[in-house]
């Protein structure tokens, strides 16, 4: 294991040479502190990412995973080889800003009950708008649907300073999250069975059950391209999001929460599937959602075992956002939620 650094900024790469070429110089320039290192963890890329790194950034530490274990498994493998107080999980398609990191670290140093924080995440292509994956802090509604300040479904808000205050949230974005190593290991790391999507929401749920807090700190800003690996609308992304969301609920929700969530979700997911099929003329989404449910049912015993593990670390019951964003958005026509 390499020498200790207080912060390790870890980029998980899979066939992302174009993103490394575009954004890695920016990352290196904005992580130039003697207490910080930049690490690229390669998830068995089949492009020439490693050749590129060796040729252009020979001083950057590179961890090479033997296979593509997805976001969750790939990070678990890489982070087990890193010695630091804090990890930054950073997508390869993120542009950092000057002084983005010190306020996050300072906040974590001063608040030992906080497991993870995120910056304000804005759109790389429309820098006055928030970005889909994280925006100004994540929440989970009463039916287990994740949403963000600044983004409700596909409605993305323009940043006018309306979220320029620190806020305790339900989850922080895996696009750019600073996480305390000890907390990460305490709650069992990322769930490798998720492969990709919602694994950060799942671990954040476990952080909260274990008694820790999570914050979005808008003093720090980054810009995210988004969809670098799986674009919005991809059937694979639809499958992973629906399957993993149900597994997350089955693992982490209280018995009472589960009773009120699972049955309505089965109906609503069916509505979503047929909506995509008949309104969007997209039968692939219907198939993806059906496959997600079948896969979820097949994971029942595995999720029950994980639920027992979650209950062992549980120190408190946690609440969800008390309203349904489905009702607020599609019935009442609200494009933002007041938090």
What does this structure look like?
The protein has 339 residues and is of the alpha/beta class. The protein has helices at 17-29, 49-56, 70-79, 101-110, 181-186, 199-209, 235-252, 255-278, 283-298, 300-313, 325-331; strands at 5-13, 36-42, 61-64, 84-90, 94-96, 114-123, 138-140, 146-148, 151-152, 155-156, 167-168, 176-180, 213-224. It folds into two domains: 5-224, Spore Coat Polysaccharide Biosynthesis Protein SpsA, Chain A, CATH 3.90.550.10; 235-331, no CATH class. It contains eleven helices and 13 strands. A hairpin with a 2-residue loop joins strand 9 and strand 10. The protein starts with a strand and ends in an 8-residue tail after the last helix.
By DSSP (H or I, 4+ residues per run), the number of helices equals 11
Computed over alpha carbons, the radius of gyration is 19 Å
Task: State the end-to-end distance.
Answer: 43 Å
Number of E-type strands: 13
**CATH topology-level fold name of the largest domain:** Spore Coat Polysaccharide Biosynthesis Protein SpsA, Chain A
What is the name of the CATH architecture of the largest domain?
Answer: Alpha-Beta Complex
The CATH homologous superfamily of the largest domain is named: Spore Coat Polysaccharide Biosynthesis Protein SpsA, Chain A
pLDDT < 50 stretches: none
Largest sheet data: 9 strands, mixed
- Mean pLDDT across all residues, rounded? 93
In what range is the share of β-strand residues?
15-25%
Shape: globular
Structural class of the secondary elements? alpha/beta
- In N-to-C order, the SSE pattern is EHEHEHEEHEEEEEEEHHEHHHHH
Total number of domains: 2
What helical percentage do the residues reach? 40-55%
Q: Just give the CATH class of the largest domain.
A: Alpha Beta
